[in-house]
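Appendix B, example 12.
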Amino acid sequence: PRECPPVGNFMGFTAEDWTKATDLTLGSCVRLCYSVVPDMIAQKKGSIVFIQSFTVKHYLPRMVLSNSIRMAVSGLTKSLSKELGPHGIRVNTVGPGAHQTDRFHNNVSTN
């Protein structure tokens, strides 16, 4: 399965947990952009699409890391869409909605 930030409450995490979750969630998007944007600018076109959790718009308890850091990805998306738009590059986020995964059920059932 895909790696995700761990489930838990704020006081259950350390600063290192926040750093790891930020690198996993936001850092992966930043690294992707650095790898593709130079070529897209040279070609004067491109499209970057981030797939986000529905927690961007809907709070889930015990998911403080995901709830917080996914908002940073949304901020990155908005910033890059304005910055890169004049170069013919679209930057968007797709939010597929809630899915009944084990992670979802395990989190909901422990609240």
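The chain has a mean pLDDT of 88. DSSP finds three helices and two strands in the chain.
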